[in-house]
Amino acid sequence: MAAKYPGQVTFVSENFGASKLAARYGVKGYPAVFVDDVLVAVPRDFGYFGEVDGTGRYAPWKNADKQAKFKADLIRMIDLILAGKKDIVARERAGTTATHELGALPNFKITDLAGHALSAEDLRGRVVLVEFWATWCPPCRSTLEWLGALKNKYGDNLAVVALAVESPEAGVKSTVAALSPDLRWGIADAPTAAAFGDITSVPTMFLFDRTGKTARVIYGAPPDLHQTAEATLAELVK
User: Fold this and answer.
1) Which of 109, 140, 194, 219 has the fewest Cβ atoms surrounding its Cβ within 10 A?
2) DSSP states of 169-199 as a string?
3) Are 184 and 160 contacting, i.e. CB atoms less than 8 angstroms apart?
4) What pTM was computed for the model?
C-alpha cells in the first residue's frame, strides 16, 4: 500500500509490546492498524477464530471482498490525511476502541487430546497458564517446548493448558507427540476461543492466579516473552 505513495507514505511494522501507539490507545491485542496516529482498525475488525459470517468490519478476513473493503478504506483514509483532513478520519474512526482484557479464567469445558474432560473447575486452586497456538505458527513451537520446562519446574503448583486453533487434528497430534506429556493438550473449538475473549492471533498466553483472576495476557511473541512470563509466574506461585 505504501508503494502507491512514493515519498509520501512509509509503512512501519511495530512489535506489539514495544508500540507506543498501542500503549497510548490501550490496544491489548493485534493486529491493530494506524494511519498516522489515528487508530483505524483493531483485532475485532478482522474477526476471530471460528467465525463464519463475521461481525467485525472486515470479518471474516479470509473473504476477498472484505480484504478489498479494507484496502479501499485504507486508501481513502490515507488520501484524506495527505490532503490535510486528518480530522475527518479521526471523527469517522472515533468508535474504534481497544478490546478489553479477560478479567478471569472463563468457565470452559473441552475434551483434551488424551480423551479426558477438562474444565476450569479442574484447575481450581492452582496457578493456570493457557496458551493458544497453531501448527503453522513458527514462534509457537519454541514456546511450547519452554512450557514443558516450566511445568517440570513448578509441578502441581502450575497447570499448563495448550490449545491449538485453526490447525488440523493430525498436525496437532504430530506436533504434540514430540513435546511434554505433562501439559494438558487440546484443540479449541469456537465457543472456547470466544470464552477467552476472541482469539485473533497466535500465540496468545493467559496467566491466572490461584483464585482464577487474570494476572497477565501476552499477545504474540515479543523478545522478552519468556522472561516476562517467568517473572509473573514466580510471583504467582509463591
Assistant:
1) 109
2) HHHHHHHHTTS-TTSEEEE--HHHHHHTT--
3) yes
4) 0.77
Q: Is 99 helix (H, G, I), strand (E, B) or coil?
A: coil
CA distance 122 to 160: 12
> Cα separation of 3 and 5, whole Å?
5
Domain ranges within the chain, ordered by starting residue = 2-92, 109-236
- Under-70 pLDDT residues of the chain: 16-17, 49-54, 98-101
CA 18 to chain centre: 16
Residue 99, pLDDT score = 59
Q: What angle in degrees, to the nearest 10, is found between the helix axes of 138-154 and 225-236?
A: 30
State the Cα–Cα distance between residues 5 and 26, nearest whole angstrom.
29
d(CA 162, CA 115): 15
The CATH architecture of the domain made up of 109-236 is 3-Layer(aba) Sandwich (3.40)
Looking at residue 221, its pLDDT comes to 83
Measured distance CA(165)–CA(32) in Å, rounded? 20
With CA atoms as reference, report the closest residue to 132 among 32, 228, 207. Answer: 207
